[in-house]
Amino acid sequence: MANPTNFISPLLQVQDLHVAYLSRAGHKSSALAGLSFEVRPGETLGILGESGSGKSTLAAALLRLLPGNGQIERGVVLFEGQDLLQAERRTLQRIRGARISVIFQEPSLALHPMIRIGEQIKDVLAAHESSGGSVMRQKTLQLLAEVFPADAARIAESYPHQLSGGQQQRVLIAQAIACGPSLVVADEPTASLDPSTQQEILSLFRKLREQLHLSLILITHNPALLAGMADRVLVMYAGKAAEIGTAEKVLASPQHPYTRALLQSMPSRVEMHAQRRKSPLAVIPGETPNLEVPATGCRFEPRCPDRMEMCTKREPVVVNVSESHSVSCFKYGE
Amino acid sequence: MRYFLRRLLQAAFLLIGVSILTFLFSALAPGNYFDEMRLNPQISPETIAALRAQYQLDRPVPVRYMRWANSLLHGELGYSFAYNSPVAPLLWVRARNTLLLALVASLIAWTLALPLGIWSAATLGRLPDRALSGITAALLVIPDLVLALGLLIIAVRTGWFPTGGMLSVGFESLSPLQKLRDLALHMALPVIALALSALPTLVRHVRAAIAEVLSAPFLRVAASHGIPRRTLLYRYALRAAANPLISLFGLSLGALLSGSLVIEVVMSWPGLGPLLLEAILARDLYVVIGGVLCSTVFLVAGNFLADVLLYLADPRIRTQAAAR
Amino acid sequence: MGLRYENTERLLIVENLRKFYARRGVLGAKKEVIALQGVSFSIRPQSTVALVGESGSGKSTLAFCLACMERPTSGRIIFQGDEITAFDEKQQRAVRPRIQLVFQDPARSLNLRFSALELVSEPLLVQGRLGKREREDRARALLAQVGLPPEKALRRAEEFSGGQRQRVAIARALALEPKLLILDEALSALDCSVQAQIANLLLELQSSLGLTYLFITHDFAMAGHLADEIAVMERGNIVELGAADRVLLEPQHEVTRRLIAATPRLGPAAHLPQVV
Using the beta-carbon criterion (under 8 Å), do B324 and C24 form an inter-chain contact? Predict the structure, then answer.
């Protein structure tokens, strides 16, 4: 379990992570091009990224669960002192689900269609503990009661296809916390859910992280979800970190042109007051970059309103704009 | 429950249809049992005519079918001209023998196919998978006949196995244990031949079904929970692949039964195969129909069994069935 | 809540629409599922009405009834002055090109193995009025109108991003020159910045082609941005209906208030959640 008063050593440190995918035709597509960040014990890091940013690749790469054509080319992932990318299979298996849990996208596909919910939770427990049958059953019901205050026993006997999207997501959360991990990574946990269900799931996360002193990585493409949830926010673009800082700084006064443009393109209540309804939103022109072509300079440059000549020549380096806020952009220094 | 009743009804219709078709084809095929007799100068034409009248072969086909169907409902399957006995007892004995062979061969084939198929799927594209694919391809190409003959040659050369039949001559006088051993030795070669002929298809299907499941999201999610590889393969992957595999099981039983015909004939196993073959050649009408009907019953039973297993195995089917 | 419009200047008038489904319960007893319980509203030409509600509220059922893909159990739909609920099959088929649907997930509503050009030409092919050359020209023009780069026209849809696919879906819906476009959660599956792009496209098309939109969503922020009027649905009923500004600033019904509160958005102090 994490020691919440220790702010010096981070729980997770990702350094210069490079991940690529090999297509069947032999083309290499760069998904992560040198990502570095850290997560401190007890903190919630929001990772803001759209399609093509590499966020889901990151979630899979942390536990080395990339699909067959994915390769981790370079980098270090330090967790509780060990480099997960170099760890042995057995060590990795002991960490997966027990020290670090990842909740992947699409809850409707994440559960085995033919095994009861209770069994599937018990399987997670059984993978890491060797208690007797009745102890496991007790724990399973307790876990389900954490996420389903009312219906735990009935849900335990149900099959995944009998549950709604929100209920399936809760089951995945129960599985994630089953063995008391110190870090939970949630990839788009509220996508495809109704707004009220979304709020329920986020409240559940808030409740659990406080109860269990969890560190949380929340991955989403919607900045609004991170408001009020994340302590710090990391903005990803084309496999690299564009900007990282406290939620307050990144969401209220973003420095990277991409973050600025992204936040400006969202309709907000404020606009309605100002009678700007039905006028065009400030969009980011163009499309996400083709990751099969190697980068020569900043990946955001073609779409950047503040682009300069040097942006095509070299990749930008990380600049600290304040104590707890850094940006990868030539606007702020070289 | 309605689900099963519907299935049973479908099966009944199938059987009726098959019986009609078989009857029709056999009756319409040129020649009949008595043509053979006519070649025998010792039997007078009057006797033949009398026999024909006795067996009512001069009546129109639909009438004969109705009479046969009627007697079927009384448990009577007609009369065999060649063996000069009712068809039913003849059929039961042979059917039992074939079933014994097919079931044991099925068991062995599946017990081998599952781990081999899973291993293949788990090492997809790599050496173990390629090697197994090569071996199954080779087995697939070899005709059952050649397989059976090859095994017979082994039997003859080594003398370890009897070269035909089901039981040895002095069977009755053996002790129970010796009886079992005797039966096993006689069964060994036909079972091996049958199992080997069925194995390649099974392995390929298991491999395909498991490979597809291995790329499913829920398997990666289970892996992310630290669930060990063994459990992932045998409990999670296999269960998810159960659907296509159980259906295959039903079909394979049927296929095995029809495949056993050649092997039974070559290895002189007293099953439905040799009986049917002789009956067809001798135009022994009711035996042919009875035999074909028997095979169809096995096929249908196999599929019905698969339906039951599928219902028990897949909760989604249960929900769907209840919703109708 | 019903507002009756005697005024035939409305493009679409829906009166007391009801839709029941018969389902068998687990024990074989007949159960009725009531998807629409008497829905009434109308849409002015070249305006946008947003239909907001959660899953199970009946919004998709309403969309299907309006697009003539489902027959309502009772009630009337009056489109361009014609009572299409009283039409027979043949007449309905003639109306369908004028009301088109765009769905949420282009990966499921489009056959991804076809090229963009083929997908957009298909409705023209089925209609059978244009020759091959004319179909292709029209399809290319449509793709240009929705902002798909011309070099992508022959690429297969499986190579496209979510936003590009949705553009193709919109172009396809425009092929038969509809008057009413029903967008069923058409933006919900897209990334935020892409939603903005497609929203702009929709606004532009509305003014250049004179389209009328029924925008179905559960995202109040986007509804507020795109719509002139907002209708809020819950369990088969419209519980609130009015001008967009009014509904957002002075919500009357409890469901509306709840949905507005639940919509995640960045407020002025962006790092804090909005509390209503």
Answer: yes
Q: Which helix (H) or strand (E) holds A197?
A: helix A195-212
B324 touches chain C (CB under 8 A): yes
- Mutation for A interface: C52, C160, C254, C271, most A CBs within 10 A: C271
Q: Are B231 and A127 a contacting pair at CB < 8 A?
A: yes
Q: Which of B215, B239, B315 sits opposite A159 (nearest CB)?
A: B315
Q: Does A232 map to a domain?
A: yes
**A269 closest CB neighbour out of C55, C192, C265:** C265
C173 pLDDT higher than 90: yes
Put simply, the chain A residues between 196 and 255 with a CB less than 8 A from any chain C CB are 196-199, 221-225, 227-229, 246-248, 251-252
Q: Does some domain include residue A159?
A: no
What are the pLDDT digits (tens) for A58-72? Answer: 999 999 999 888 999
Work out the angle at residue B101's Cα, subtended by the Cα atoms of residues B100 and B107, and round it to the nearest 5 degrees. Answer: 90
**Per-residue pLDDT at C25:** 54
**Both tokens of residue B67?**
């009479």
Hey, are the CB atoms on A194 and C161 less than 8 Å from each other? no
The whole-angstrom separation of Cα A38 and Cα A92 is 19
**Residue range C22-61, pLDDT digits in tens:** 765 545 556 677 789 989 999 999 999 999 998 888 888 9
Q: Which amino acid, B257?
A: L
Question: What's the whole-model pTM score?
Answer: 0.83
CATH topology of domain C12-109+178-262: Rossmann fold (3.40.50)
Write down the ipTM of this complex. Answer: 0.86
Residues ≥6 apart with Cβ < 8 Å to B44? none
pLDDT band at C1 (very low <50, low <70, confident <90, very high): very low
pLDDT score of A327: 93
The ranges of chain B with pLDDT < 50 are none
Q: Cβ contact (<8 Å) for B240 and A106? A: no
- Say if residues C138 and C88 touch (Cβ distance below 8 Å): no
Q: CB–CB of C212/C80 below 8 Å?
A: no
Contact C26 B322 (CB under 8 A): yes
What pLDDT is recorded for position B116? 93
Tokens of A83: 């480099």
Shortest Cα–Cα distance, A228 to chain C (Å): 5
Looking at the complex, does the CB of residue A50 fall below 8 Å from at least one CB of chain C? yes
pLDDT band of A208, cuts 50, 70, 90: very high
Containing structural domain, residue A18: 12-41+52-99+185-190+221-328
Residue B248: domain span: 100-280
Q: SS3 of B85, please?
A: strand
DSSP state of A266: S
Q: Is A119 at the interface with chain B, CB within 8 A?
A: no
Instruction: Report yes or no on B288 lying in a domain.
Output: no
- Domains of chain C, residue spans: 12-109+178-262
